Amino acid sequence: MESGSPSFISSARSARPPIAILSYHQTAEPPPPGTPVRDLVLPPAQFARQMRALKLIGYRGLSMRDLQPYLRGEKTGRVVGITFDDGYLNNFEHALPVLRELGFTATVFMVSAQIGGTNAWDHEHGVPSAPLMEVAHLKAWMAAGMEVGGHTRHHVNLLQADDATARAEITGCKQDLEQALGVPIRSFCYPYGGHRAEHGEMARQAGYEMATTIVSSRTRADDDMLLLPRISVHLEDRLPVLLLQVATGFEDWRLGRAKNRSRPNTRWTMPRRVQAG
Known about the structure:
By secondary structure, this protein is α/β, with parallel strands linked by helices.
């Protein structure tokens, strides 16, 4: 039997070990205590320590594009997905040099209608304004070997959107980014982690090959590629715990896999410890 045959791929996929995908937001100095979603802002030095520790224990950080063959069971190795939600300029300024130094790649999930804008969706909640990447930054990000994925056009909560709006946000984001950047957009991320099964189907129909949530777990071989779990990284997370989340079943033990893999952790409805978007 040839190694490229569907039955071989299916067998390899079913045998692959769990793979963690990490979810980051901003890499900058955190705002004062008490600021909403402060725990999603990591000092650049803390992010760098995490990346270097992962490499030290034998892991290679990969974008969703580069992680895809491992998720499919077509490749094996000690790998971890590295993703950034929203498209903050501080990721370009602070995270990119570290990733390049270590030979890692990563995906930034961009809110397409806010290219060159700010995190406007957060302002009503009292979250400080932060600039997002412009087209030139995104092109330089890709030139460095990184990937750009979609995060809807306006960072809408899909759980609160009707089907027509959800479809327009999911599909329109891909179209916006492809027009602006001139490359296929293969990966998507559900804002606030909120999704229903039909949103996964919308992403599939739009042409995305992968989509991520913030259901806190490592990925398994039987996970839908359009509903992949991720582990959110927070300001107060200790480095040994992060390494356990990546390399062991600690996260599933901590949260209870059966219950927590069935629903997303959304930023405004869950306790602060698991908030993300």
